[in-house]
Amino acid sequence: MLDTRGRKYFDRIFDKIGRSFLKIGFMPTHITFIAAMVGIVGAVSFSFDKFILSIILLWISGFLDAVDGSMARQSGKVSEVGTLLDIWLDRLVEISYIISFAIVCNEATFTLMILACTIILSMTVFLTSGMLLENTGIKSFHYQAGLMERTEGFIMFTFMIIFYPHMKILAFIYAVLILYTAVQRLYMAIKVLGGNNEK
Known about the structure:
Layout: H1 2-6, H2 11-23, H3 28-47, H4 51-75, H5 80-104, H6 109-132, H7 150-162, H8 167-198
Helix pairs in contact: 2-4, 3-4, 3-5, 4-7, 5-6, 6-8, 7-8
């Protein structure tokens, strides 16, 4: 929701930093990999009780993940490979955090497994809709809005780091919100696809 509705307020910042990276020779894919590495280091930091560092690196990773897309659009290098890497590495960062959460808070392991399952369900709908629905936005595929998008995920991860003694309940709340988003996206996609079939 925040990515869809709030992105326009930050695009100027992303574009400016993206231009700076392009001027010094970075390519969008370079930033994609750097964002992923920063995120993975952030996840590992949590398992070593470096909670503040883990939060900082999480948000730097997310920021760079937004910048790489801006760089691709500005340089005319939007590609299927870039999209594939971006989506895959985003999930790798999320998985890294979930694994670290399970290592530190092993009593929440089962709930974190449920969380991972809901992410799979939501991403399945998201990616399938992106393939089947007409693209009307600036991204390289149809971006289906929902209650829980990546920024909301980062907010939840931040809460889970700060209040890690309550990891089980926070992971459960996050899983419920993602499951709602999956159903929401599925309903919206079926509605649009059903309407298209009737034309």
